[in-house]
Amino acid sequence: MLTLPIIQPESAAPAKPRKPDWLRVKLPVGPAYANVRRLVDEHKLHTICESGNCPNMGECWGAGTATFMILGNVCTRSCSFCAVATGRPTEYDLDEPRRVAEAIHLMGVKHAVLTSVNRDELKDRGASVWYETVVQTKQLSPGTTIETLIPDVKANWDALDTMIAGGQEVVSHNMETVGSLYRLVRPQGKYDRSLEQIRRTKAAGKRTKSGIMLGLGEKQDEMYQAMDDLVANGLDILTLGQYLQPTKRHIEVAEFIHPDLFAHYREEGLRRGLKYVESGPLVRSSYHAERHVNVPI
């Protein structure tokens, strides 16, 4: 087990850990970023880049890419880490697949990432919109590869089958944290249920991917167990990144994980049987997603 010092507050009094230098990011600027910004606004699209306060938005949008969030921007879940609004969704736009497909075509992206809020109030969890968005994107941009980052379907396996049947190259479902922290971090989620969702996705012949946030209070042994569980359930690709508290209302950062420990987890994940591990403080689910399409599995 690799042991590294925890970043301590400057004084002995209880205080939040100070954000270290390695978490600094550049503000989004440049013509490529401005073009993506314009297209997103014109087509009235939601991006998780904005809703999730992603630290890589400047880098990714500057490269002309973005992760689109379908099915609205109000989630039926109340996860303690997430900056997306929680409530009773009212938006259900059957024309959204066309608009997203057209925007991806206009942007000329080679690899698109699609994600969504949880829509637990819908009988099919929004699966039909998922399916049509992938299909229409492929029809309009046949050379574009697609990753879908899908939510927990609450064991509605028919909905899962529809969500992953559109022809996407990668299907991702984030575990978010280790099993012991689920009640705190994902109170409406279940660790074993998410593992089963990944297992069923792999059984359907898909390239599987998941993500875990670090710095929520997880122990190293718990991280190793999570990796073993994911491998046992057919996971191919894992992303590991630092949790950053989006607002004062959300769960606080327990610690800032040193880049060396991220590197250690990457090596451990590969040693334990994962095919690819993207690991670093600023890594998010869709970071370098275009690389994950061609990972040998």
TrEMBL record:
* One record GO biological process: protein lipoylation
Keyword annotations for this protein, in alphabetical order, are: 4Fe-4S, Cytoplasm, Iron, Iron-sulfur, Metal-binding, S-adenosyl-L-methionine, Transferase
CDD domains named among the record's database cross-references: Radical_SAM (cd01335)
Localization per record = Cytoplasm
Q: What is its EC number?
A: 2.8.1.8
State the PANTHER family in the record: LIPOYL SYNTHASE, LIPOYL SYNTHASE, MITOCHONDRIAL
| Designated name of the protein | Lipoyl synthase
- The organism is Hymenobacter amundsenii
